[in-house]
Structure formats: structure tokens, C-alpha cells
Write a structure and sequence with these properties.
The structure holds two protein chains of two kinds.
Chain A: E1 2-7, E2 10-15, H1 22-29, E3 48-51, E4 54-57, E5 70-72, H2 85-92, H3 102-115, H4 121-127, H5 139-151
Parallel strand pairs in A: 1-5
Antiparallel strand pairs in A: 1-2, 3-4, 3-5
Chain B: H1 20-24, E1 40-46, E2 52-58, H2 60-63, E3 68-73, E4 103-104, E5 110-116, H3 119-128, E6 130-135, H4 142-146, E7 169-177, H5 180-186, E8 189-197, E9 209-214, E10 220-224, H6 229-239, E11 247-250, H7 266-277, E12 281-284, H8 287-292, E13 300-308, E14 314-326, H9 332-341, E15 352-361, H10 375-393, H11 397-404, H12 413-417, H13 434-445, H14 447-452, E16 456-457, E17 460-470, E18 481-487, E19 493-497, H15 506-518, E20 525-528, H16 546-573, E21 581-583, E22 586-588, E23 594-596, H17 597-607, E24 614-619, E25 628-638, E26 644-654, H18 661-680, E27 711-715, H19 738-750, H20 761-771
Helix pairs in contact in B: 9-10, 10-19, 15-16, 16-17, 18-19
Classes of the chains: A alpha+beta, B alpha+beta.
Chain lengths: ~160, ~775
């Protein structure tokens, strides 16, 4: 089937078999391997991308689901070579250890700050509960999101 | 600021993690991030039986399927006994594993492998393989395996190194020091604790994954998510009967390991499929396979008996461990040994000690290396027993530890008696700030106030508990790390290391050591790890070794390169090299004269007396200085539901000089998070036929952000004289604290001892009911 959508701000047209997962479309067909597969069952959150601003698990979503939408992946966060404040904050606060869950955590955090630019610590903790990280104790991740929220420019 | 770091310009500072920018941008750094189009997909047929002999296997229906390229099984591969443990040589784990065997020993054991042009076809092929099994009695517990008349799980005649195959004992240890029985009998007070840890899994968010292919010269290249690239090369070469030099192992970024990626699991299978087909083959464990068919922590029951005087000073210490190694003996002996060797020296007052135990085969998943590596299993009963002793003697638990723990300048006979599956090496503890950890932690935590009376609110009772731990820094006299540093003609450096950053930040820390010694910022060091063709030998990331062992190699290589740089600069400045100093990217001489490293590099490469400024250095550690830590936990126990909620967990650690404090704190926090998972949630559950029934992340719960409400790590000032720039290890120790600290906190709250992890609501309720 013919699929047309906006990917990280660029119009994208591809032909895909109907059962293709969004994750495979991104990683294999479109060469964007930043989005990760941790479980393939919608439990770990490593494959979180934004579809029309909504966090979406790319391992469960069919590619056909993004027809006519705007999709944002971790590769779309940095603009013109400038890291997004969330990306800088993740590095600065030690939120990145192995980095495998990082793309999903970044996209979920981005969606949170879009909805709620000044979240409390508790709100960040609650919002990120679907994104598992096995390296940190999450505090460094939450510190990063709160710090980005404080210094964040309007995207 | 810690001793020794006051003059440092790079070390001791939270520099930008060298791989941070590329990771937050999602650049293709991981094993499966490369273009894999055209590669075959490899999948494994798992055993449905816990214990069975394969009578016949018919692959014709699978092979006739369009797209299937190859099916491997015990009938068409060489039979070579090996261990998957991924350790140094000689390997201390038994050679009890074969690429494919005519017998399966647990549900999930590998029966056959298929390579096909798509995953869908490969999985369909698995369904078409028909296997006739002779089902054997399955031994699903240590007791069943040890019972008289039980069948031998390893009845093959060509296994090597099994302690007692007929009795299902993979390994056994008995280390007596003095006469512990007499000392216990004579002690004024004795206490005993027996604690049990179940099957738990590392759950790296990236499962095991491997791509095997041939380069343009026909050499086998294995790109793999591993902690031990050089051991992978050696083991793959052995299993596939290739000369070592025909194998190249590339370790890209690793998405978490925690020990499970020390195991060499997919690499020989993918390599065999690639060899047979001549094509690239990729393999990834599903989450279910990661749980069942990779490796777990060794489930263990450990008994501790303490004898003490009325002053609380220990006089006798006995520890007995019964370890379940599962179907194969990966790390069976060494994890067992570490239960004693990494715990008993912490309290070095008794002269009479004994550590003994067995590692037993069962028809359950295979245990292996897991952060903490036996110490986690040992500290649980040891620190619960210390809590019991404190209660008996009415001594504050912090004070009891202060009266007993090892101090700087002291030793323990255990260092010499128990090593890595063999005798150890005597050592004096040169740095130990555990007293500071205990005092600072108690103060920050508000220990005295919280301990004096458990708070209560309706059915909710709050309690606090604490524990101590130590670990090691690498394996003395056995493991080796090496590093190469080269000067580029623009004054920057390349640092090539076989050390394996599995998310710990070791690439950054090792770059900091090089940058500090060479007088440049970290940005001037390009780090490359690891590739068996291009980076020097390193045993890899395990045993808390990288900062201490590989870091010392980097330090030595940097000193040698520095010396070479000074030779060139001395000629350029026409000054004696003894007066020269390197900092800020320049070599400074007297009278305000200096040359830049770029000028030095340019001259050495192109101008006069041209030569390559470079050095390689190695380190085999002569000792393994322990890091120390004190842990404090506060829990809220709901007496009506049995639910235990962790209110706060504090870990205070002595890791020597923290070369990168934020990364070191992250190691402690992350390790504590896993320990909290062990304490509260994590357990693999098995059916009566030995099948793990919770093989996903909903039914096997690891801590999420809402489960860990307040984890904090504090590092105390310390300096390890034998370590690189004063450092020792930090990555494992944090996982040892939560189990005993939380168990002790539950006791403080509601007066019941939880000795079987995890402390689930059902277990807490049953304990409360038992108490009446």
C-alpha cells in the first residue's frame, strides 16, 4: 500500500506491505534506527515515537496507522545541528547510560513538555512510568526533564 | 574534594560523556543499527521439555520451505565441549555445553537453528521440524537434583571439569580457616540466618543480538552485543574449529549487560549458520528467549552463622551456600566462590571462619554472571544476621558494623584462601572509608531518629534498616587489560581499548585518564572500543575491572606517550626534558617558552626524525582493592495488604577517587535500583513442568519510575594508592545493599524477618500471620 506522511518535518511517501510494523518501516525501510526494539510487545517503551504529538509504541503500531499524520522520531529532535534542550539535559544529568532506552525516554519526555511545560517531579515520574530503564534509578532522568523544562525555549 | 584530585583538570570532573551526543541523537551505534538488508535471519528451536533425549530429528519439511537456507542440529555439527561463560583462560567453568546436543536439559534449551531469508519464514520452518523426544525425569529443584537415585543431568562422557556429574554437582568449595565449629560453640552469642534468592534476570533493554558475516578476505566477522569481545573470539574459534586469526569480533555500543552479555550464546550459532550458508546471518533474542534461554542470576540458599562476644565483636563466621546453576555450569564455581570471597573479609575480626558450598545442576534455565556475582547472594543473609546480632545485643546496627568492619592497613585470610575458582592472593586493604560511609549515611538519612521508633499511620507502619557491602576491582593476577594511545599530527590523540563500555561510561572515564596525563581536554581524545582486529587485548567488562585494570593500562600507555612527546619537545625547545610540563595542549619549558602538541605531532610526522608517537601498555592487577558502601532503606509496610513500599534508599560508597562523579553515582543508583527489584518484585516463576511462565515485562516486573521514589547515592572522599589516579571500582557494589537493608527495614517496621526474596505482599502477609 502507498503510505504518505510527514516524518521529522519532511513529506515521506513509501510503498509498504499492509502488515508492516511502524518500527520496521522506520528502522529498516527508512533508515532511521534511532527508535529501538526492546521487547516487541509494547511493554518497555524503547520504541516510543510521536504520532501527531502523541507518544506511540512503534512496535505495536502498524505503519498504515501513520497515514496522513506527522511522525517525530529521536532523529528529528535536534534542529540544524543544535541539540534540543532535552538532549543536552539528558547528557548533562547522567540520564544516558547505555543509551538504548534513551530515544524512547526522550520522545516521551518531549510529549510531556509539550502538554505540560512546567511539570512537577511527581508528574514527570508518573508520565515516564511506561518507559523502562535498567541502567539508571530514574532520578537522573527526571532531573534532566525538570532541568530542560526550566530552560526550555519554545520549539 | 578528594585527596589527589585537587590539582586535576579532567579527572574528578563531570565531563561530557564521550558517546552522549550521538546516543541522544539516535545515531546507529548498536549492533542491529546497521543496514542488514540481504542478511539471513537465524532463529533457534527451543526445547519444550525440561529433560529429554533427542531420539530423532527430521528437518526435511523445514528445509523444503521456500526461503529456508540452512538447518543445524546435533546431527550435522561438530561436537565440541565448551563453556559459554566468557571467562579468561584457563576457563574455570566446566566444559558441559555443545553447540547442539542429542540431549536437552531445560525448557528453552537449543534443539536446532534455522537460517532463512525472513523471520517469518524462519519461524515457520521451526514449526516444521519434527523431533522425537525420549522424555526423562526432570529435576526442577536443588533437592530433587541431589536426591539419591536422581538421574544425572550431565551423563555425557565427553564433558570436562564437572565436580561430580553423577551427583549433579557442578562445583564445590570448602574453605576452613581455624576451627569455626569450636569458635561458634564457645561464642557468648550466636545467631543464624538463612536467606534465599530466586531465579531473576538481568533484563537489559537491548536483548542479545549478533550479526555474523564474511569480510572481503573470507574471515568471519561477528558484530555482537558482548561484554567480552576477545573471549568471544576465542570461544567462537574453538566451537567452529576455526583458527583464531580467521575470526574478528566487533563490539559496537551495548544496550545494557549487567553480566548477561559476558555469556557467549548467539555468536557461535550465528557463526555456524554463516559458515554453512556463506551469507550474513543476524540473530536477536526475543524478550521471552532473553528470559529463558540466555542467563539468570544463580538462585541460592545461603546460611550464615555468627558467633560474637557480648561486645558485639565477631569471633566466628560460617557461611554455607547451595547454588542452583541450572542446566549448565556457567560461572558455577566462580559465583559460588565469590559468595564467600567478596563478603567474609568485610568483617575481619574472627580468626575462625568457614565458607563452603555446592553448585547444583537442575533442569531449569542456566544461571550465569550477574552484577554482584555471588556477593549479592552472600550479603543478604550476612547482613540480616548482623541485624539479628544487633538486636540480641541491643547494639545499634550501625555501631555493630563499626565494631567489626575491616580498616585500612588490615587484611583477611579469605583474600588468600578464596580466589576466582582457585586460591586467591593475599592483600592489605589500602583504602577503606566505610566508617565515613556509615557515619555520613546515618546522619543524612536521619538514622537515629527514624530507628528509635517505627512510625505508624493506620495500617501503615514505617521502618528503617541498613546493610554494608564490599566488592572487588578486577581479578587479581588473572585478567589483563591493555590500551594503545597514538598522537595525531594535529595534537589530538587516539585511544584504542579492548575494554568494553556496556553503558557504564568507561569510554569516558578511560579518556579522562588519558586526557589528564596528556594535558588535553577529553575532546582531544578519540576513543575506540572494541574490535579484536584493531584494539589491544582486554578481557572485557566484568568483575568491576574496567576503571581499575583497563584504567591502569591507559595510565601507563599515556605516561609512555607523554615521555615520547617530551623527547620531541625537548629537541624543539632545546631544553632538558626533565624541566618540561604538559598542560593546556602545550609543552611548557623554562623562560616562558612552549610548543603546542600540534607542533610536536606535526614535527614527528613530517619534519625531523619522523616517527610514530604511540604506546601500548598492559595491566594485570596485583591486588583487587574493594570498594565499600553503607546502605540505608526506609519502607512503608501495609499490614492489611502486605504491600511493601520503598520510601527511600540511600547508598554511601567509597570507590576511591571518583574519576567522573556523576557516572559513578549513576552506577550506584542503577545498581541499587536493580537490588530493589530483587527485593520487591523480581522472580521467574515456573510451571510444574519447568516452563517459565512470566517471560514478559508485565508479568516479570522490573522497577519503573514510579516504583523508585527516592534513590540517592553519595560518594565519600577516598584515595586508592594502587589505582589509576586513586580510583577503584563502583559498578557492582550497589546491588548488594537493598535486599538485606529492605529486609531489615521490614523487620524494624513489623517485626517479621523476610528471608525469601522477593518480599511480595503474599509473603509479607504470611509472615505476619505466622507471627500471630
Amino acid at each position: 500500500m502507498r503510505l504518505e506522511f510527514e516524518l521529522n518535518g519532511r513529506r515521506t511517501v513509501v510503498n509498504i506491505p499492509p502488515g508492516r510494523r511502524l518500527l520496521d518501516l522506520l528502522r529498516e525501510d527508512l533508515g532511521l534506527p534511532g527508535t529501538k526494539e526492546g521487547c516487541g510487545e509494547g511493554e518497555c517503551g524503547a520504541c516510543t515515537v510521536l504520532v501527531n504529538g502523541q507518544p506511540t509504541l512503534a512496535c505495536l503500531a502498524l505503519a498504515a496507522h501513520v497515514q496522513g499524520t506527522a511522525v517525530c522520531t529521536v532523529e528529528g529532535l535536534a534542529q540544524a545541528g543544535e541539540l534540543h534542550p532535552l538532549q543536552n539535559a539528558f547528557i548533562e544529568h547522567g540520564a544516558v547510560q547505555c543509551g538504548f532506552c534513551t530515544p524512547g525516554l526522550l520522545m516521551a519526555s518531549y510529549a510531556l513538555l509539550q502538554k505540560n511545560p512546567n511539570p512537577t517531579r511527581h508528574e514527570v515520574r508518573e508520565y515516564l512510568a511506561g518507559n523502562l530503564c535498567r541502567c539508571t534509578g530514574y532520578d537522573q532522568v527526571i532531573d534532566a526533564v525538570l532541568s530542560a523544562a526550566k530552560g526550555q525555549r519554545c520549539p | 574534594m578528594a585527596v589527589g584530585t585537587s590539582k586535576r583538570s579532567v579527572v574528578g570532573h563531570n565531563v561530557t560523556k564521550v558517546d552522549g551526543p550521538s546516543l541522544v541523537c539516535g545515531r546507529p551505534k548498536f549492533t542491529m543499527d546497521i543496514d542488514l538488508s540481504g542478511s539471513l535471519v537465524g532463529v533457534i528451536l527451543p526445547s519444550p521439555h525440561a529433560h529429554a533425549r533427542i531420539k530423532s530429528i527430521d528437518t526435511s519439511a523445514a528445509e523444503s520451505l521456500s526461503g529456508v537456507v540452512c538447518v543445524l542440529h546435533h546431527g550435522n555439527v561438530s561436537r565440541i565441549a565448551h563453556t559459554t561463560a566468557g571467562q579468561g583462560w584457563p576457563e574455570p567453568s566446566p566444559y558441559d555445553t555443545f553447540l547442539f546436543d542429542n540431549k536437552v536439559r531445560y525448557v528453552g534449551d537449543k534443539v536446532a537453528a534455522v537460517a532463512a531469508n525472513s523471520e517469518q519464514v524462519a519461524r515457520e520452518a521451526l514449526r516444521r521440524i519434527s523431533v522425537e523426544y525420549e522424555v526423562l525425569p526432570s529435576l526442577l529443584s536443588v533437592d530433587a537434583a541431589l536426591a539419591a537415585g536422581s538421574p544425572a543431568i550431565h551423563d555425557e562422557t565427553d564433558a570436562e571439569g564437572i565436580y561430580d556429574a553423577a551427583g549433579n554437582v557442578a562445583a564445590a568449595v570448602d574453605i576452613p580457616v581455624g576451627d569455626v565449629a569450636a569458635a561458634l560453640a564457645q561464642a557468648e552469642v550466636t545467631v543464624e540466618a538463612t536467606c534465599e534468592i530466586p531465579y531473576s534476570q538481568h533484563v537489559p533493554i537491548e536483548p542479545h543480538c549478533t550479526v555474523a558475516y564474511f569480510d572481503e578476505d573470507g574471515r568471519l566477522v561477528v558484530r555482537t552485543s558482548t561484554q567480552v569481545p576477545f573471549h568471544v573470539r576465542r570461544i567462537v574459534a574453538r566451537v567452529l574449529e576455526l583458527p583464531l586469526h580467521r575470526v574478528r569480533v566487533v563490539k559496537p555500543r551495548i544496550g545494557g549487560g549487567f553480566g548477561v552479555k559476558q555469556e557467549v550464546l548467539l555468536e557461535p550459532v550465528a557463526g555456524a549458520l554463516a559458515l554453512r550458508t556463506g551469507k550474513a546471518v543476524r540473530m536477536v533474542f526475543t524478550r521471552e528467549e532473553e528470559f529463558v534461554s540466555s542467563r539468570t542470576r544463580h538462585p541460592m540458599k545461603v546460611r550464615v552463622a555468627l558467633g560474637a562476644g557480648k561486645d558485639g565483636v565477631l569471633r566466628a563466621l560460617e557461611m554455607e551456600a547451595t547454588s542452583n546453576t541450572g542446566a549448565y555450569g556457567a560461572h558455577a564455581l566462580t559465583v559460588l566462590s565469590n559468595v564467600g570471597s567478596k563478603t567474609l573479609p568485610l568483617y575481619n575480626k574472627p580468626h575462625d571462619l568457614r565458607f563452603h558450598g555446592r553448585a547444583v545442576y537442575t533442569n531449569l534455565p542456566v544461571a550465569g554472571a550477574y552484577r554482584g556475582y555471588g556477593a549479592t547472594q552472600g550479603y543478604f543473609p550476612l547482613e540480616v544476621a548482623m541485624d539479628q546480632l544487633a538486636e540480641r545485643l541491643q547494639i545499634d546496627p550501625v555501631e555493630l558494623r563499626l565494631r567489626n568492619h575491616i580498616r585500612e592497613g588490615e587484611t583477611s585470610p579469605i583474600f588468600e584462601r578464596i580466589g576466582e575458582g582457585r586460591e586467591g592472593v593475599a592483600q592489605i586493604v589500602r583504602s577503606c572509608k566505610l566508617e565515613e560511609c556509615l557515619r555520613l549515611g546515618a546522619e543524612r538519612f536521619g538514622w537515629r531518629e527514624k530507628r528509635s521508633a517505627p512510625r505508624q499511620r493506620g495500617p501503615l507502619t514505617y521502618g528503617v534498616g541498613m546493610a554494608c557491602a564490599m566488592q572487588g576491582s578486577g581479578i587479581t593476577g588473572i585478567d589483563m587489560g591493555a590500551a594503545t594511545i597514538m598522537l595525531n599530527e594535529d595534537g589530538s590523540f587516539r585511544l584504542l581499548i579492548g575494554a568494553t563500555d556496556l553503558g557504564t561510561g568507561s569510554d569516558t572515564v578511560l579518556a579522562q585518564i588519558a586526557a589528564e596525563m596528556l594535558g588535553v581536554p577529553v575532546e582531544k581524545i578519540s576513543v575506540y572500543s572494541s574490535d579484536t582486529d584493531f584494539t589491544p587485548f582486554d578481557v572485557g567488562a566484568y568483575a568491576s575491572s574496567t576503571t581499575y585494570v583497563s584504567g591502569t593500562a591507559v595510565l601507563r600507555a599515556a605516561q609512555e606517550v607523554r615521555s615520547q612527546v617530551l623527547d620531541v619537545a625537548a629537541a624543539m625547545l632545546r631544553q632538558s626534558r626533565d624541566t618540561l610540563e604538559i598542560h593546556d595542549g602545550r609543552v611548557h619549558g623554562s623562560a616562558g617558552k612552549s610548543v603546542s602538541l600540534e607542533e610536536v605531532g606535526h614535527r614527528a610526522a613530517y619534519v625531523v626524525d619522523q616517527h610514530h608517537i604511540a604506546a601500548t601498555a598492559s595491566c594485570v592487577p596485583e591486588e583487587s582493592p574493594p570498594p565499600f558502601a553503607a546502605f540505608f532503606a526506609e519502607v512503608c509496610v501495609d499490614r492489611e495488604t502486605g504491600l511493601v513500599r520503598l520510601e527511600r534508599m540511600l547508598g554511601v560508597a567509597d570507590c576511591g577517587v571518583a574519576l567522573h562523579p556523576r557516572l559513578a553515582e549513576g552506577q550506584v543508583e542503577g545498581a541499587m535500583a536493580q537490588g530493589v527489584g530483587h527485593a520487591l518484585f523480581e522472580e521467574m516463576v515456573f510451571s510444574e513442568r519447568g516452563r517459565c511462565v512470566n517471560t514478559n515485562l508485565l508479568d516479570y516486573r522490573i522497577p519503573s519510575s514510579t516504583d523508585l521514589r527516592s534513590l540517592e547515592a553519595i560518594l565519600v572522599d577516598s584515595y586508592e594508592p594502587s589505582g589509576p589516579l586513586g580510583a577503584k571500582s563502583i559498578a557492582e557494589i550497589g546491588i548488594n545493599g537493598p535486599l538485606p537493608a529492605i529486609s531489615n527495614a521490614i523487620y524494624h517496621a513489623v517485626g517479621v524477618r523476610l528471608a525469601r526474596a522477593p518480599f511480595t505482599p503474599g509473603r509479607v502477609l504470611r509472615a505476619l500471620e505466622g507471627k500471630g
